[in-house]
């Protein structure tokens, strides 16, 4: 089901058109073992990306392909001449880069596992994901068990991640239905993606806040969205290269509203999400949260609310403004190899 393989590095100029899949191709896919690819979109974090790729290629179980998409060669420093990873160049933005990975993998891949460039899977992660998707053809998208998430605590380093994975050991293989996969690790069955010309929404620019919800609810029309508890990993949540506070704060309001209008997020869930974000930013200021740019995020929340009242709120508006200095600069988070 999963074999050891090495692919030549390539840098392709890929079109933005969705890839279709005919009935014959679907039948051929069903008659052979599942082929697995891992796809990583990254920008501005070459050392983190290199560290993660080095870890992945050292695991005992390997995918047929490991594909990295970056907006520029410098974003993949140290990977260009390697034979164990494919490097492609795509337009900057998480959604656009993930679409480039879909197009690059479409011809010979059944299951595409998207990992963040700072997600560290356990040694059994790929095998367990593959087993669940092979045994449950009705599953369209799956997400694993995140044992620790550095996004919530200001970031983790590789040594801490490995310690968490070692301490946790093996877990159950229980599969439960969920509303959406978590973007740091998503296993996607490509057949419905290709058959229905699904894609990540490139109207969600840059960091693509809530792109995981949007894509999960789009593909959920054609199969189950599940969580696989035994597929474990750690999300480092490295803060370098992430979206600045003001832009993220704007997205925290504008993106849920956009998804309501699109029909991929329920009104109740979106309103609750917006409320939690605003409350977290406001309370973070009150309690002097120095791990996150709460002032910048709250300012972005406020700009989005003003735009909503003026009927001009849109996810792409974050491209029109930069990010002012935060009032409470966050302390640096030490990470390995940085």
TrEMBL record:
Which key words tag this protein in UniProt?
A: Glycosyltransferase, Transferase
InterPro entries in UniProt: Nucleotide-diphossugar_trans
The molecular function terms in GO held by this entry are: glycosyltransferase activity
Give the start-end ranges of region Disordered.
1-20
Q: Name one Pfam family in it.
A: Glyco_tranf_2_3
Q: Which family does it belong to?
A: Belongs to the glycosyltransferase 2 family.
Record's protein name: Glycosyltransferase, GT2 family
């Amino acid at each position: 089901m999963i074999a050891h393989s090495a692919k030549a590095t390539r840098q392709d100029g890929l079109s933005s058109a969705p890839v279709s899949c005919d009935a014959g191709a679907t039948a051929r896919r069903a008659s052979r073992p599942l082929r697995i690819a891992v796809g990583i979109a990254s920008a501005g974090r070459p050392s983190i990306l290199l560290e993660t790729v080095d870890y992945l290629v050292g695991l005992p179980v390997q995918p047929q392909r490991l594909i990295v998409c970056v907006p520029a060669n410098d974003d993949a420093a140290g990977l260009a001449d390697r034979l164990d990873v494919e490097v492609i160049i795509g337009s900057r933005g998480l959604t656009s880069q993930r679409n480039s990975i879909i197009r690059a993998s479409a011809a010979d891949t059944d299951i595409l596992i998207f990992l963040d460039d700072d997600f560290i899977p356990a040694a059994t992660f790929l095998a367990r994901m593959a087993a669940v998707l092979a045994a449950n053809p009705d599953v369209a998208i799956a997400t694993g068990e995140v044992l620790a998430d550095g996004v919530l605590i200001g970031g983790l380093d590789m040594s801490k991640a490995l310690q968490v994975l070692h301490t946790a050991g093996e877990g159950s293989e229980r599969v439960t239905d969920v509303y959406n996969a978590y973007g740091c690790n998503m296993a996607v069955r490509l057949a419905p993606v290709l058959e229905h010309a699904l894609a990540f929404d490139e109207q969600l620019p840059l960091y693509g806040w809530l792109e995981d919800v949007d894509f999960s609810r789009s593909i959920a029309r054609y199969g189950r969205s599940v969580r696989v508890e035994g597929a474990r990993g750690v999300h480092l949540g490295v803060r370098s290269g992430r979206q600045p506070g003001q832009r993220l704060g704007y997205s925290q309001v504008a993106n849920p509203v956009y998804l309501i209008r699109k029909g991929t997020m329920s009104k109740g869930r979106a309103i609750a999400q917006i409320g939690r974000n605003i409350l977290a930013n406001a309370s973070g200021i009150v309690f002097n949260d120095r791990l996150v740019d709460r002032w910048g995020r709250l300012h972005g929340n406020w700009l989005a609310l003003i735009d909503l009242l003026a009927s001009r709120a849109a996810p792409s508006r974050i491209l029109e403004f930069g990010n002012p200095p935060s009032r409470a600069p966050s302390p640096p988070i030490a990470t390995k190899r940085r």
